[in-house]
Each structure stands twice: as structure tokens, then as C-alpha cells.
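User: Working on a comparison across species. This one is Glycosyltransferase family 2 protein from Elongatibacter sediminis. Can you predict its structure so I can line it up against the others?
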Amino acid sequence: MRLSVIIPCYNEAASLLRVIDSVRAAPGPEREIIVIDDGSTDGTADLLREQVDGKLARVIYHERNQGKGAALRSGFAAARHEIVIVQDADLEYDPADYPAMIQPILDDQADVVFDSRFMGHRPHRVLYFWHRMGNGLLTFLSNMFTNLNLTDMETGYKAFRREVIQSIEIEENRFGFEPEITAKLARGRYRIYEVGIGYFGRTYQEGKKIGWRDGFRAIWCILKYNLRP
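Assistant: Here's the predicted structure for Glycosyltransferase family 2 protein from Elongatibacter sediminis:
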């Protein structure tokens, strides 16, 4: 099986080329790389046009910033290979974890694999207490409605069989994608596995974008997508 690596980015000029190089160098099967620039204003789009466009499977440009969910929607639609994996453009997740992430799919045990930043033995950067508590609360609430036992619903690393992710309509434009896709996967009764990975988190000074407003939106999305008929 081959990989489609989807890289949504917004104002990631400082790290994007390193991420692309890391994805290319990572162990694992043949892959295509699809980058979606979501209306960046820091020169990311110019960087892509000058140094990247034409060297990857696809580079997609959004004229205005719409959010991570919108960027992923564009990327998923463009994917052509059997396994689709999300790679954030900020170096918080290490492409060296690809083999572990996709192995349950290769073994025909899973249709979807979530990573977990809170299980396993890989390095994990120590950061914000309240961010961790909020993540735990959102995962707990999501699990209550989905009847799953995930340890890290809000994680950015997810791998899918292509036919699974392309069959699901993604409605959320921002970080509400995580609880939305979790609810829809649970309703679809897909086989979901979880794998512990390394996590090299950023501070807000280093460019981390998710905030408390996204947390409240996540609660709304948990209710919306689990309770809606």
C-alpha cells in the first residue's frame, strides 16, 4: 500500500521545508505529498511557488484563510493512494512514526489509526498543564457520546484508508474537524486503533495556533455531530 501525506499549512514558512524534507526521508512505503496553503500571509505561498510547486504530487492554494478542516477537505479530495495520513506543518509530529501509524492498516486490523501523545514510550515535550486538562476533558466528553475509549481525540496525527476518509463529508472548517471526524467514524463502526507516538509540541510564542475558543467549539461539535440524527 502507498501513502498520501496531506500537509495543511497556515503561516508555516519557518518550518514547512523541513517538514517536507522529513516526510520524504521518513521510512515506509512510497508516498505522494499534497500541501495545502490555507491563505498564508507570512510568505508561505511564495515559498511554495518558488521552491516546492512542481516537485510534489500537488500543491493547493486557498485564496483566503478558512481553517484546518477546510484545508484537509481539499487535501483528502486530492489523495490518490491507499492510505491517507495527516501531517501538520509545524514539526510537532515526527514522520519517523509513519510505520507504527500505518501498521494496523497494513495488517488489515484497522480502517483508521489515531496517534496518542499520552501513551507509549516515545519522547513527549512537557508543556501546558491546562491545555492537557482541556484535552483530557474533550476526549472524555467525546468518548461518552461515541462509546470509544480513545486517550487522545484531539491529536493531529490520523491515518485512514482512503475510501473511508473520502466517503465522509467534512463540514467543519477549523479545529472542529477532530471531534467531527471522531463522531462520524464511530457512527460508521469503522475499526479504530490507537498508537503511541512522540510529540514535540510548540509554545504559543513558537507558533501554536489552537486556543480556548477552539476548545468551546470542540464541545459544540461533540454535541452536534453525536446527537444529530
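For your comparison, note: Residues 3-227 form a domain with the Spore Coat Polysaccharide Biosynthesis Protein SpsA; Chain A fold (CATH 3.90.550.10).

User: Helpful, thanks.
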